[in-house]
Amino acid sequence: MILFLLFLVRKHYTSLKNLPPGPQPWPIIGNMHQMAKNPHIAAANFAKKYGPLISLRLGTRLLVVASSPDAAMEILKTQDRYLSGRSIPDALQQSFIDYYFVWARDCNKHWKSCRTLCWAELFSAKAIEAQSTLQNEKLARMLDFLNNTQGTVVKIEELIFTTLINTLSNILFSKDFLDLKDDETAHRLKFGLLKILENSVTPNVSDFFPIVGGLDLQGLRKDSLNHLDELSSFSDAVVKERRAQITKKVHVAVHEKDFLDRLLENNFTTAQINILVLELFIAGTDTVVTAIEWAMAELLKNQNIMHKVQAELKRELSYDSIMKSDLSKLTYFNACIKETLRLHPVVPVLIPRRALKACEVMNFTIPQNAQLWVNVWAISHDPKVWEDPNTFKPERFLGSNINFTGHDYEFLPFGGGRRMCPGLPSAVKSLQTILASLILVYDWTLPNDEDPKTLDMSEKFGVTLQKEKPLQLIFSRKK
Ligand code: HEM
């Protein structure tokens, strides 16, 4: 049945003129295992054969993948206006679809108000400055906690996750959501967030054949809804309590106005707030945790680079000054951060885009509603773009103007165009302060005297490209 449908689809797309080239269904079926496990690598391999812009027919869906800086530029700059929709996976097609921000179908009115508010209240230079006391407080708490773990093995991702959730929940709601010692709630929250992301990229028959979408044959939509409901309960109670306080005029200002106050002033409904907060937690925690984990793994593996970073941090900073210093002036340290994001692009194919209208890219036609991936992973690992692309070499960024601000199309860890990551300033600040503190304050060793050179660097594909085996470390405070 599925093969027959594939045949029909192939006929349909073959009759569309001037699509980008690409494999017919058979090579895709032949590569099904890799397509499912590591689609970013499978697509990069297809690009070597068919060119930088390819089309893949998956059921009734057409996926267009860009794998060169030129193709990325046409999508994110030249045709950004027409290609700035998002393709919402069936698992996330819920009744509140119109309230999405990260997954907003197009740049609609609600998306615009989310973006404007988030920029003003969370990501502008003024907002980032205003958050530093809070951020430092949460970081200090994390370091205190680590001081008491001397000699024991720590899963670093969980610790950083809890720190980031609490930083964000305080910025949004003036409240801690998690306790560093309460592994279980942290685990539940992280599991829920990751499960939603995982469901959104699991190959789903409903995505390939939307005609059977209503049946939710794999149960992914239902499962996502359960997690979305459970996670919303974290914010729901706070929003209701704040509303009641405002109604009864007993909202005593024990803190500066927070993000929740601004959302209420802007007439966001409780459901809209719950979804926005959830999306911010999803977009803003796992990404940063994953980037820090990759950076730490690379520094462990490349001890000569670690020594250079340690020397720079020691020369320029002291423990007390980390929080107050402008870390963007540390050239080698920042080159390590860029190199981590190049070698391990945290969002490997960006968050899939959708063509709002048919348009031309590289002289090919992108039909309306085609899904688009910008394969940042393929660009980052292309020897035509980067010399010795598979080696961790921060030196390549020294004396170079290449940056991740969305204008250098060979280096797009935060995407580009109107859907580019608005959280970039906050992400970079967290990456810098957490990583610098961990390097400056502690020596890190692997459990069981494992040799860092043999550290397993396997990737696990998802919306975020995680380290398959979480990094476990023993921290000892430097003398
Ligand atoms: C290392 C950390 C991060 C990386 C690598 C990253 C990367 C990305 C990428 C690639 C996109 C899609 C861009 C595109 O389609 O062109 C994105 C979107 C987004 N990111 Fe980030 N991100 C990070 C951290 C954050 C943080 C800390 C926040 C907020 C707290 C955040 C909020 C968002 C939002 C709201 C969107 C959706 C924007 C839209 O669709 O208009 N991100 N991010």
Automatic annotation (TrEMBL):
Molecular-function GO terms, alphabetical: heme binding; iron ion binding; monooxygenase activity; oxidoreductase activity, acting on paired donors, with incorporation or reduction of molecular oxygen
Annotated InterPro entries: Cyt_P450 (IPR001128), Cyt_P450_CS (IPR017972), Cyt_P450_E_grp-I (IPR002401), Cyt_P450_sf (IPR036396)
Keyword field: Heme, Iron, Metal-binding, Monooxygenase, Oxidoreductase, Signal
Required cofactor names: heme
Residues spanning the membrane: none
Protein name from the UniProt record: Cytochrome P450
Keyword set includes Oxidoreductase: yes
Species of the source: Deinandra increscens subsp. villosa
Similarity remark: Belongs to the cytochrome P450 family.
Signal peptide stretch: 1-16
Keyword Zinc-finger set for record: no
Binding site for heme: 421
